[in-house]
Structures are given as structure tokens and as C-alpha cells.
Backbone:
């Protein structure tokens, strides 16, 4: 009986030693596996641009950016590549109507061919209802603008919807003013398409001259489509050396 008991005790001790060895081996393997896993995670983190040991779980690597607020004013880089400068608005741009008119053409000492090559100067537009100074002591106004049914009596004219208006020239100088070379035309639309002149109704040519302190009036009719009357320009050319006056605005439909 003692021999059997001793044999059973020996077998039990052997089993405990084997279980302990197995447990130690499994623990070592787990520790080694954990080390390898951590090393692999650090390698992945480095490949992704993260610091070693940083949490790589999606959504927890870095906090989500807050919702952006209103954009800050843009900075404009300097031309030389220096520090950016704030885009602070400068002085307000001068409106076309406030710009000075171009100088009259100097005709002295120039041949007719030279004068023909000089472009006709054009003044900045004014409103249809404004008075426009043409040169010292001479001005022009547009009045009695109305929609009419244009009459075609001349060659190439086409009757249809039209606009009639008066151009009045005031001579405040001490000398007679010639209107023999004065020209009136009209354009419409964004592309400033030329309008065709018409013979009626009730047109009137300028007088040949205007006495000192007097006025001279001409009545003109131009074909203007009904849908293009929000942007009309009437041009008055008194003479070759004087800037062309432009009256711009909306006309009756």
C-alpha cells in the first residue's frame, strides 16, 4: 500500500511539473506575441506618419477638427514674395462721369491726312437728362425723348419702332457757332449696336449756325427695338476737334 501511494504521488508531482512548464511556456509565447504585435503596430504607425506608440484606432488617433467658422480676410502676397499684406480697400475708383474730358484735337501745323489719322476723342458718358459742356461756352442737352413709330422715306430705311428726341445746343460765347458739321447718332444694347436713322415722324435738321447767346435745335428719329431700350447712348459730335458727347440711359418703350 505504501508503494502504490508513493507511485501515485510521483505521478501527480510529475503532472504538476509538466503543467507548470506548459503554463510558463504559454506565458512566454504570449509575451513574445505581444512584443511582436506592439512592434508591428509601431511600424504601421511610422508608415502612417504617426509617432511610435500612438493609438492607431480609427477615429481616436487625433481629435476631429472643429467646424470651421467664418473665413478670415484673405491676405495678398506682395509682388516680391515678402509678407502678405491685408487687402484693405483703397480709395474709391473715379466714376466715368467724374473723369475729365479728353483734350480737343490740336489742328495747327497738321495736314488733312495727319488729322484724319488722329482718333476722335470721346468724353465720358452723362445721363440722358444732364447738360453736357462741349467746349468753352458751348453745351448740349437731350430733351423730349419719346417712343414713336418710325417712318421710312430714305434709301435703306426700315420703318418700325423708334425713338425721337431733341438735341439743343446753347452758344454762350460772343461768336456765332457753326453746326454745319455736327453729327448725331445712337447705339443700343450691351454691344452698342448702331441704330438706323429714320426720316420721320417730324424730324428737323440743325440750323447752320447759332448766334451768340442763342440756341439751336435738331429733332432726330432712330430705329430702336423695344427690348433694347434700357441701355441707349446718344452721341453728339459737334466738330472734329471737340470730344464727342455721350448721353446714356433708358428711353421710353
Residues:
Amino acid at each position: 500500500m505504501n508503494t502504490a501511494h508513493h507511485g501515485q504521488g510521483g505521478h501527480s508531482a510529475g503532472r504538476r511539473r509538466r503543467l507548470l512548464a506548459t503554463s510558463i511556456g504559454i506565458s512566454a509565447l504570449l509575451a513574445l506575441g505581444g512584443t511582436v504585435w506592439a512592434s508591428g503596430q509601431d511600424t504601421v504607425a511610422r508608415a502612417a506618419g504617426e509617432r511610435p506608440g500612438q493609438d492607431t484606432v480609427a477615429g481616436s488617433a487625433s481629435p476631429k477638427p472643429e467646424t470651421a467658422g467664418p473665413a478670415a480676410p484673405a491676405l495678398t502676397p506682395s509682388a516680391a514674395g515678402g509678407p502678405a499684406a491685408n487687402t484693405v480697400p483703397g480709395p474709391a475708383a473715379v466714376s466715368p462721369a467724374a473723369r475729365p474730358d479728353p483734350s480737343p484735337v490740336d489742328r495747327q501745323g497738321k495736314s488733312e491726312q495727319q488729322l484724319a489719322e488722329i482718333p476722335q476723342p470721346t468724353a465720358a458718358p452723362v445721363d440722358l437728362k444732364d447738360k453736357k459742356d462741349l467746349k468753352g461756352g458751348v453745351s448740349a442737352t437731350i430733351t423730349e425723348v419719346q417712343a414713336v413709330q418710325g417712318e421710312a422715306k430714305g434709301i435703306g430705311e426700315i420703318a418700325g419702332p423708334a425713338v425721337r428726341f431733341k438735341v439743343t445746343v446753347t452758344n454762350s460765347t460772343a461768336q456765332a457757332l457753326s453746326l454745319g458739321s455736327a453729327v448725331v447718332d445712337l447705339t443700343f444694347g450691351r454691344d452698342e449696336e448702331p441704330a438706323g436713322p429714320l426720316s420721320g415722324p417730324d424730324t428737323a435738321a440743325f440750323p447752320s449756325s447759332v448766334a451768340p447767346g442763342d440756341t439751336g435745335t435738331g429733332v432726330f428719329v432712330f430705329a430702336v427695338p423695344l427690348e433694347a431700350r434700357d441701355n441707349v447712348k446718344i452721341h453728339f459730335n459737334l466738330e472734329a476737334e471737340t470730344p464727342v458727347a455721350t448721353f446714356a440711359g433708358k428711353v421710353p418703350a
Q: What stands out?
A: The chain has a mean pLDDT of 75.
